[in-house]
Design goal:
Residues 38-96 form the Pyridoxamine 5'-phosphate oxidase Alr4036 family FMN-binding domain. Keywords: Oxidoreductase. It is an enzyme of class 1 (oxidoreductase). The chain is 20% helix and 35% strand. The protein has a single domain (5-102, 155-192), classed as Electron Transport, Fmn-binding Protein, Chain A (Pnp Oxidase, Chain A). It has four helices and nine strands; from the N terminus they run αββββαββααβββ. The radius of gyration is 19 Å and the shape is elongated. It has helices spanning 5-21, 63-70, 100-108, 111-114; strands at 31-34, 39-41, 44-48, 53-59, 73-80, 85-96, 154-168, 175-181, 187-192. Strands 1, 2, 3, 4, 5, 6, 7, 8 and 9 form a nine-stranded antiparallel sheet that branches.
C-alpha cells in the first residue's frame, strides 16, 4: 500500500475525482450524515479537487435542508470494498437554492431526474405506498414547461471538507491516516493506529 502521506492524499483526491464521473465507482454514492445524526445515501454530483468541495442535489423542502441550515456540521462516508479503503470525511455544508452553480446543475439534469422535484416534499405523509410524484409523471418524462414549478424545489448540498480519516483494511494489518485543513488551505496529515 502507501508509505507516504502525500501518496495517501493523492489517492484520496483521485478517488474523489472519479466518484461523481463514474456511476460504477464504489464512492459514487456516499453516506451523508447531518448534524441531527441522520444518515442517508446520496449521489455525489461533483468534486472540486482544488477547494475540496462536494456538490450533491437535494430538495429544498427536505428535512435535511432545515437541519443543514441550522447546523452546518456534516460527515461523509465513502467505502471501496474492492480496494478495502474507507474515507470518513467531515466538513461544513450549505443548502444553495439560487445562483449560477444551481442553474448549471439544474440545466445539466435530465427532465426525468428533474421530475423528482415536482412531487410532494420529502417526508410527506401518505395512506398508501407512494413515490410522491403527480400521477401523470409516474414513469413518464415531463416536458420543460411542466417542470417550471419543480425548479423552486431544487437545491444543492455543498460540502466543504475540513478533515478526513483514511483507512486501508488488510489482513496483514490495517493502516490509517488522518488529515486536517490548515488555515492556508493545505492538508496536514499524520499516521495513526487503526
Amino acid at each position: 500500500m502507501f508509505e507516504a502521506l502525500d501518496e495517501v492524499l493523492t489517492d484520496c483526491r483521485n478517488r474523489l475525482i472519479r466518484a461523481p464521473r463514474d456511476r460504477k465507482s464504489p464512492m459514487h454514492t456516499p453516506v451523508i450524515v447531518t448534524g441531527d445524526v441522520d444518515a442517508r445515501v446520496m449521489v455525489l454530483r461533483a468534486f472540486d479537487s482544488q477547494n475540496w468541495t462536494f456538490r450533491l442535489h437535494t430538495d429544498a423542502r427536505a428535512p435535511k435542508a432545515k437541519v443543514v441550515t441550522a447546523d452546518p456540521r456534516i460527515a461523509v462516508l465513502f467505502y471501496d470494498k474492492g480496494a478495502k479503503i474507507q474515507i470518513r470525511a467531515r466538513g461544513t455544508a450549505a443548502i444553495v437554492t439560487s445562483g449560477a452553480e444551481v442553474d448549471a446543475a439544474w440545466g445539466s439534469s435530465t427532465n426525468f431526474a428533474r421530475r423528482c422535484y415536482l412531487g410532494d416534499g420529502p417526508g410527506s405523509g401518505s395512506d398508501v405506498p407512494t413515490s410522491g410524484l403527480p400521477a401523470e409523471f409516474e414513469g413518464a418524462e415531463p416536458d420543460d414547461a411542466q417542470l417550471v414549478p419543480a425548479r423552486e424545489n431544487f437545491a444543492l448540498l455543498r460540502i466543504t471538507l475540513t478533515a478526513f480519516d483514511w483507512l486501508y483494511l488488510a489482513h496483514t494489518g490495517h493502516v490509517r491516516a488522518q488529515f486536517a485543513r490548515a488555515a492556508t488551505g493545505e492538508w496536514q496529515g499524520h499516521w495513526v493506529s487503526p
